[in-house]
Design a protein that fits this description.
The chain has 3 helices and 3 strands. The protein has 70 residues and is of the alpha/beta class. A 3-stranded parallel beta sheet has the order 1-2-3. Strand 2, helix 3 and strand 3 form a beta-alpha-beta unit.
Length: 70
């Protein structure tokens, strides 16, 4: 499904889940950017433990690969 969704499209890969809280941008900030750029596709990556937070970023222009990339 992911390859079909992204094939022929440009997209941005984001990993909003820094291990250090002092380096982490607020999740709401990422959500705002995603909402304001509906013409862009975003691929969200991170560890499996980040899945519940990644769910908060779901939108029609988001492909969530959190926990699926080594």
């Amino acid at each position: 499904a992911c390859a079909r969704t992204l094939k022929g499209r440009s997209y941005w890969v984001v990993n909003p889940f820094s291990r250090g809280a002092y380096k982490r941008w607020r999740l709401e900030g990422f959500a705002t950017v995603i909402r304001r750029m509906p013409e862009r596709f975003f691929v969200v990556i991170g560890q499996a433990s980040d899945r519940s937070d990644a769910a908060r970023l779901q939108a029609d222009n988001v492909v969530d690969l959190t926990g699926q990339i080594d």
